[in-house]
Design a protein that fits this description.
Number of strands: 21
Number of helices: 18
Distance between the termini: 26 Å
Strand order of the largest sheet: 1-2-5-9-10-11-12-13
CATH class of the largest domain: Alpha Beta
CATH architecture of the largest domain: Alpha-Beta Barrel
Shape: globular
Structural class: alpha/beta
Largest sheet: 8 strands, parallel, barrel
Helix content: 25-40%
């Protein structure tokens, strides 16, 4: 693998609205991020990904953009953005913007002009259709529920939106539209961003015709995953976008990529691929159901292990993954993947070690380094997220009572990750001096950055140690580039794998069980060097290792064993 500047880095996703409020209006902002850059530097972060800060009505929290060239006043000004870029550069931190180009806002000038003349120039920037035999053009279901077609007031036209109705899909088949997007991308790269996290990009290619597919619910609609399986030729768009933009600037690009066949992965992230890397979503997709969140199954530790190893095997000789536990669209990982007995600091460190030491670029979502947890919602009125509200409605539709519906939808709610960052035990967790836009998690007095940064055995301190291993004088190259070799795969509740380097090997092993376990790693004779351990000590004799409940150990070995 050709070595890149970003391979040894650790990336950190910031959800600006909930990170830090500098002006007391209850909403996080760019100045707030600037004020906390030293916190991120001390943690060891080298790459920042900002969720959208563009001008937006915020129907979907900024993923509905009305002006790609402007900053939303909620977050500050373009001068604030320039300051953030400059201050990050001083600290040797690269900044990635969120590139949202499958759709824009219905308040974007393009769409306003398109609605005035759907058959005109800007009408071709979107998808407009009329009913056929009094039926909608096709039976696709929006990701947020309901048909993907919405009427254009005063006309007989309907426009396509695979997400919220205020997020009309852009027509990538139109070369004029593509050139407008490329112009915008280059404008941001010239300004100084290092690259992009690329949102929902697989959706830019639709099937050649709008047609019905087999319904998967009683509403007569079909899931978009089924639709995208019939869309072919996206490489033409992605290859062109790379040539016209990313390649010119040697930009770092991380794709949000779903529904890609294994045979195509090299085209996406192999040598010369469309993107530098792509997120591993196999674990987050485990247990999901097209019927709705009520039908989802929480992954077991063994299912989590299997997903991680499947992704590592597939990508080993292809490209570099970006590994996550959680993001702005998922529940908090420690509340989702850990058994109830493991939802404590030891268990949180276990989960951290198991994902972080896999081959790839590790991403930390804000608050993950503290072990922030899901919020307990007392009513649907506490929830802001549009997808959670739809899933709550779906639960009621299939017969759940209100309490059951809230529990089911609440576990998966995107608001779990969007509650304000817990900086201290001060009111509102030190996030704001005003009224926070979204209710803070009640546990902020117990889980907060100030408390954890003052303690050597905290979750925060453990993440800092994990990050430092990527620069370790002896083992750093193995952490970053070593091959992943799973072991003890059939051992229940044990996750273990080697990272095989040129000069040494690293064993990563963790016990997800409620009871201690004794395991044997074949072929190991020497003790090895304990690089990281989330318990007071580790009991080992060569390849025989005794692990306490939720213990995680990282051990380095020379090749002589």
């Amino acid at each position: 693998m050709e070595k890149k500047w970003w391979h040894k880095k650790t990336a950190y996703q910031i959800y600006p609205k909930s990170f830090y409020d500098s002006n007391g209006d209850g909403i996080g902002d760019l100045r707030g991020i600037v004020e906390k850059l030293d916190y991120l530097k001390e943690l060891g972060i080298g790459i920042l990904w900002l969720s959208p800060v563009y001008a937006s009505p915020c129907a979907d929290q900024g993923y509905d953009i009305k002006d790609y060239y402007d900053i939303d006043p909620r977050f500050g000004t373009m001068e604030d953005m320039d300051l953030l870029l400059a201050e990050a550069k001083k600290r040797d931190m690269a900044v990635l913007m969120d590139l949202v180009v499958n759709h824009c806002s219905d308040e974007h000038q393009w769409f306003k002009k398109a609605c005035q003349d759907p058959d005109g120039e800007y009408g071709k920037f979107f998808y407009f259709q009329e009913k056929r035999d009094k039926k909608l053009p096709c039976n696709w279901r929006s990701y947020f529920g309901g048909p993907v077609w919405e009427p254009v007031e005063g006309t007989d036209k309907y426009y396509l939106h695979v997400f919220h109705k205020k997020q009309p899909d852009l027509n990538w088949e139109n070369p004029k539209l593509r050139q407008e997007i490329y112009k915008m991308i280059n404008w941001w790269l010239k300004k100084g961003v290092a690259g992009f996290r690329i949102d929902a990009i697989i959706n830019i290619k639709k099937p050649d015709t709008f047609k019905d597919y087999p319904a998967d619910r009683e509403d007569g609609l079909c899931d978009m995953g089924q639709v995208l399986a019939h869309a072919h030729g996206i490489g033409e768009f992605l290859g062109e976008m790379k040539r016209e933009t990313f390649e010119i600037w040697d930009a770092l690009t991380i794709g949000e990529v779903f529904h890609v066949e294994e045979a195509q992965l090299r085209e996406f992230v192999g040598e010369g691929g469309y993107f530098s890397s792509m997120f591993d979503f196999r674990e987050t997709l485990e247990g999901k159901s097209v019927l709705g969140w009520y039908d989802c199954q929480i992954p077991t530790p063994d299912a989590y292990k299997r997903c991680c190893f499947e992704s590592q095997r597939i990508m080993e000789d292809v490209g570099y993954l970006s590994n996550i536990i959680e993001n702005h669209d998922e529940p908090r990982g420690v509340s989702h993947y850990l058994p109830s007995y493991g939802q404590n600091e030891r268990g949180k460190k276990l989960l951290a070690a198991m994902y972080f030491m896999l081959k790839g670029l590790p991403f930390i979502y804000q608050g993950q380094e503290l072990g922030m947890e899901n919020k307990v919602f007392s009513s649907i009125e506490e929830i802001d997220d549009i997808s959670t509200k739809e899933e709550y409605r779906r639960c009621l539709e299939v017969g759940y009572d209100k309490d059951q519906a809230l529990k089911a939808a609440g576990h998966y709610s995107r608001d779990n990750a969007r509650t304000p960052f817990q900086w201290s035990d001060e009111p509102n967790g030190g996030f704001t001096k005003g009224e926070p836009w979204l209710g803070i998690n009640d546990n902020y007095r117990r889980i907060n950055a100030r408390e954890q940064m003052g303690r050597d055995d905290s979750v925060w301190a453990f993440y800092r140690q994990l990050i430092a291993l990527r620069e370790h004088a002896t083992y750093g190259d193995t952490v970053v580039y070593g091959r992943t070799e799973p072991v003890l795969e059939e051992e229940r509740n044990i996750m273990a794998y080697f990272r095989r380097g040129e000069g040494q090997d690293i064993l990563v092993i963790g016990n997800f069980d409620e009871e201690p376990k004794m395991v044997t790693i074949a072929g190991i004779k020497e003790q090895g060097q304990v690089l990281l351990n989330n318990c007071g000590s580790v009991d080992m004799d060569g390849g025989r290792i005794r692990l306490e409940s939720c213990q995680a150990v990282v051990i380095g070995y020379g090749k002589k064993y």
